[in-house]
Amino acid sequence: MVVLVTVFVAPAPGLTQSPVAKIGFLGASGGAREKPLLEEFRRAFKELGYREGQNVVIEERYADGAFDRLPALAGELLASKPNLLLVAGAPAVLAAKNATSTVPIVMTNSADPVGIGLVASLARPGGNITGMSDFNDGVVTKRLALLKEMVPSMTRVAVLYNPSNPTNPGQLKLATEAARTLGLAVMALEARTPADVDRAFLTIQKERPGALFVIGDPALGTMRPKILELVRKHRVPSSFTGKERIENGGLFAYGPRFEDLYRRAAIYVDKVLKGAKPADLPIEQPNTFEFVLNLKTAKVLGLTVPRSIVLQADRVID
Questions:
Q1: Which of 33, 192, 198, 213 is the most buried (most CB within 10 A)?
Q2: What is the pTM assigned to this prediction?
Q3: Is the four-CA dihedral 94, 96, 101, 106 of positive or negative sign?
Q4: Which domains does the chain have, with CATH numbers?
């Protein structure tokens, strides 16, 4: 007589519970800015053994800088029952946090996750959020000091920021404090939309500040081509956080290497899919910063950049 014995093997926690993991990607800015960075995540994720269409699927949503769209986009992704959300930009992380307290959220970048209430602390986030902080707050002082060295005659600086981004008011405060130590007055200009950018540059044209300091923000990042067009038109020395399109008229960019942040986010996603809890994974900050300097723009503006500044640059456009 043959006896058939059925053996039940319980699935291991994490990814092995399902042959295909689903990741929902939510970006506060647009695909033109985010897709190249998301490719860095994909490359790092592939190195960790994941193959799209085989053991992982990534579904993408982009707000194109319209933050009011983020709650609905987060809802769409959650309706597809993802294993986790990969989220870019503080406004998008905030929308994801408001949409779910159970689905894990991995940040690719957020300037001040503790200050805006996303997590309890960097060391022990608590809740369902972990990942990378881009630490833009920490580079505000450095950027402003570089700008003053390149435009030594400057006595007033225009600061363009988006009050709809919860991290921007804090960065404006830091910029104002840093400007005071450099003997500069700050002209704060709000911009949520392209029309706001036009109005801001009408003020710049009238008031003639020495330079423009653009605070890091997904919506302003989406509008960067327009901002650079107006920078060229009005011949305003300008500083950005991200290096994108500096070739088209910006004076310099200084900030974290966002490619590195996205690659490091892949490690977090891998850990979560294998069963780690976001609450127990400390949030990491950038360890690599990038300074890109456009000497062609400096020449057009009639600026002589000190040799000591040129030598600090990671990349020089000349």
A1: 213
A2: 0.89
A3: negative
A4: 15-134+257-288 (3.40.50.2300), 137-256+290-317 (3.40.50.2300)
